[in-house]
Amino acid sequence: MIDLYTWPTPDGHKVHIMLEETGTPYTVIPINICKDDQFDPEFLKINPNNKMLAMIDPDGPGGELYSLFESGAILMYLAEKTGQFMPTDMCTRYDVIQWLMFQMGGVGPMFGQAHHFLHYAPEDIDYAVDRFAVFVLGGFGVVAIALWAEGISLAELRERGAALTSREVTRQANAEHN
Ligand SMILES: N[C@@H](CCC(=O)N[C@@H](CS)C(=O)NCC(=O)O)C(=O)O
């Protein structure tokens, strides 16, 4: 049973969806970033980057305990462990990896900055808002075009993602938060 140190944020939900989709059993250990749980010295032993999320698999490679942080690495680990969502054919495997890299290197950090400057920055900085808004619009454009080429609409994808988001994670995190 994988221990998942997480919180219901977009980065967390990527892994929650993967665990649900692959049918991997897991236990949620809430890392409440509103209460600075991410700075707990015990948590830093598994994620030295002071951020959720992280996992410990007691039944890792070779039957040994294995611990991992960074959501993209956890997605790849789960894909390999379960033999799902990572094609063995080289071209299609790299098709998958390129979108994972696009998400980790572009969508995640750029959308995160846009969100920060729109909602949390102590002062309004038009330059920062405009700069990251352009990345957000561009990012959605890239995804929309790629999905359109595959015959999938953004609305369909959003509906599917919302349905798969782990209800257990949300329930536990809410209980911790309240
Ligand atoms: N690249 C990391 C990003 C993790 C990350 O940014 N976590 C955020 C929440 S989504 C966090 O813990 N923020 C609290 C903080 O920065 O103090 C991953 O994908 O796992």
Strand order of the largest sheet: 2-1-3-4
The helix-strand sequence is: EHEHEEHHHHH
Task: Give the name of the CATH superfamily of the largest domain.
Answer: Glutaredoxin
For the sheet with most strands, the description reads:
4 strands, mixed
Strand content: 5-15%
How many domains? The number is 2
What would you note in describing this structure?
The chain is α+β, with helices and mostly antiparallel strands and 178 residues long. The protein has two domains: 2-85 and 167-177, Glutaredoxin; 90-164, Glutathione S-transferase Yfyf (Class Pi), Chain A, domain 2, CATH 1.20.1050.10. The protein is 60% helix and 10% strand. The protein has seven helices and four strands, in the order βαβαββααααα. It has a four-stranded mixed sheet. A hairpin with an 8-residue loop joins strand 3 (54-57) and strand 4 (66-69). Helix 1 (10-22) runs parallel beside helix 3 (71-82). The longest helix has 31 residues, at 90-120. The model has no long low-confidence stretch (mean pLDDT 90). Bound molecules: glutathione. Glutathione (GSH) binds at residues 9, 11, 33, 38, 50-53, 70-72, 108.
Jot down its keywords:
4-stranded mixed sheet; 178 residues; binds glutathione; globular; alpha+beta; Glutathione S-transferase Yfyf (Class Pi), Chain A, domain 2; 2 domains
Quick take:
The protein is an alpha+beta fold and 178 residues long.
Topology at a glance:
Elements (H helix, E strand, L loop, with lengths): L1 E5 L3 H13 L3 E5 L10 H4 L9 E4 L8 E4 L1 H12 L7 H31 L5 H25 L3 H11 L2 H11 L1
Parallel strand pairs: 1-2
Antiparallel strand pairs: 1-3, 3-4
The structure holds glutathione.
